[in-house]
Amino acid sequence: MGNLCCCVQVDQSTVAIREQFGKFDGVLEPGCHCMPWFVGKRVAGHLTLRLQQLDVRCETKTKDNVFVNVVASIQYRALAGKASDAFYKLSNTRSQIQAYVFDVIRASVPKLHLDDAFEQKDEIAKAVEEELEKAMSAYGFEIVQTLIVDIEPDEHVKRAMNEINAAARLRAAANEKAEAEKIVQIKRAEGEAEAKYLSGLGIARQRQAIVDGLRDSVLGFSVNVPGTTAKDVMDMVLITQYFDTMKEIGASSKASSVFIPHGPGAVRDIATQIRDGLLQGSSVTQH
């Protein structure tokens, strides 16, 4: 109906290419336009000005001979001021862009090792965008943005990389565990040393208290019972301690068999030995 009335409609974000007798005659903006077909004018086609995206998958290899699939996303659009170039100069825009992407990626990635390729994705994308911008601007297209969205190595290579990473983490975990066990052992040794030191102090104080108690008992007994010497009192205290010890050994149900010489002479020998030991200890302390 529009052709019969010599009117055509151009949608928003679109331009139409007008020809007269097969020759380019102008660009029609969005809206309604008069198109007198009887004078040879017609719409040759429409060109969208919307942002378009092309995903390109390119297989190449890295410097360390690892084959990878590089996925690039190209965002582009036709320029309204160069609509005639975009319409007439290229027959297949997407194939042209794909060819340039292949060329740049296969020239850039083989210079990098696999790890460097992952780290320099932005540099690869920038190189692709610069090359596309120079080439496609002559055809009336603008490259808005280029993204390297993925780098996919072979499945065996990915598995090997994961195993290397896992082994490194296990090694680090083993080192941390060994270091923790070392710290625990050091702290345990320090605690045992401190405990033994404190136990030694306790035993020394206990023995000092026993000696002080015996001394006070001897002095008190000598004062209250005239005619007794310190030696007599000490012998009596030692004999009392001896019989108390014998009683505790016999009363204990878990005690092992203990053979101790017993008799009046044995008691005297034990008293002499204990007294000599106390005297020797006292002389060492004084010196």
UniProtKB/TrEMBL annotation:
Q: Keywords, A to Z?
A: Coiled coil, Lipoprotein, Myristate
- Coiled-coil ranges (or none): 114-190
Start and end of every Band domain?
A: 5-165
Report the function annotation for this chain: Positive regulator of hypersensitive response (HR)-like cell death. May be involved in potassium ion channel regulation.
Q: Identify this protein by name.
A: Band 7 domain-containing protein
Which organism is this entry from?
Sorghum bicolor (Sorghum)
Is Coiled coil one of the keywords UniProt gives this record?
Answer: yes
- What SMART domains does the entry give? PHB (SM00244)
Matching Pfam families = Band_7 (PF01145)
Bilayer-crossing regions: none
Please name the SUPFAM superfamilies in this protein's record. Answer: Band 7/SPFH domain (SSF117892)
